[in-house]
Amino acid sequence: MIKNQCNQYQNRLVEEITTRKNLEEDYEMRIQQMRLVVEGKQKEIDHINSKMALPIDQDILRMRIQKDLEAKYRFDLDSKIMELDKISESYFETKRHLELTKTNLESSKLEFEKVESDLKRRQKEEINELVADNHALQLRIEDSYKDREQSR
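-> structure tokens emitted (152 positions)
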């Protein structure tokens, strides 16, 4: 039962690790997409800026555009971060349960080994007692047989 439970926790742990890796890859992919979009927009801005000489400071304009672009992805990014946090928490909880199960299994194993050794020891003592009783009874039978032989 404990081994089965341990196996279940190990399977769940593998699933959690796989899910976490998938989320991290998705997170990295979205960040890369966002970088590409930002770089593309930055190139567009630089191209337009080179054609136009506006009195607006380039840094302010760049920050506004960057903020607009990031706003589109910020919600997705925040939700993925929250999801990743939940999965991480679940992963560590599952890992803790696995360790508890391993500890329970080990203590049950030690207890079983102790009971087994006690039973073996008692069985050996009982067998020795029975052998001694058997020997004593055989001696008594031999003595009574000799007594019968002498009385005849």
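The CA atoms of residues 20 and 103 lie 26 Å apart.
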